[in-house]
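Hi there, hope your week has been kind to you so far. No rush at all, and the record is pasted right below.
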Amino acid sequence: MSNDHSENFRTEIAARLFDRLPQDQLRSVLAILDATLPEYEISRRPVEIIPADGIPDVVRYYLASKAVENLSPGTLHIYRLRLIDFFGRVGKAYPDIRANDIRLYLYFYKDQRGCSDAYLDNIRRILSAFFSWLVDNEYLIRNPCATVEKIKHQPPVREPLTSYELEELRWSCQSIREKALVDFLYSTWTSRTSISSPALS
């Protein structure tokens, strides 16, 4: 530990205890610190203060980097809303976020809003991408979201067109070629799902 860090730490402890301990006890505490501190390395951890608008500075930097990567304004807006909601609910600065903070956030989000598992996993992926960016840019050593399990969900089942819907689609075609293309695409899809296609009229 550098002499500057040691002296700063000692001075801060003395300032915090000055009005709480009698002078003789304070001197005893400082004597113990003087004897113990040389055995340790101590450095001040940077603490991020979340601005009044609720957007941590690192979120601004992250969104700016994604804007440079040409993410769509709609995607950037979703990322911004999701990260603001996350930090607002967790109530911690990014260096203090742990995997369990993320798990609890996801649990209460689903419990309160009743969203689907697919939607919830999308939130998890947004958070993981953000924390991965913090690691890549040396704001953090580890991604706290890396150990948060993926949320299992079934992909949505796509229902085939009804005969009426298929006929409407064919009637909207402007040429025989378009009708043939619609029938070909529909037949290709139904052959994979074992559903027979009505004959082209």
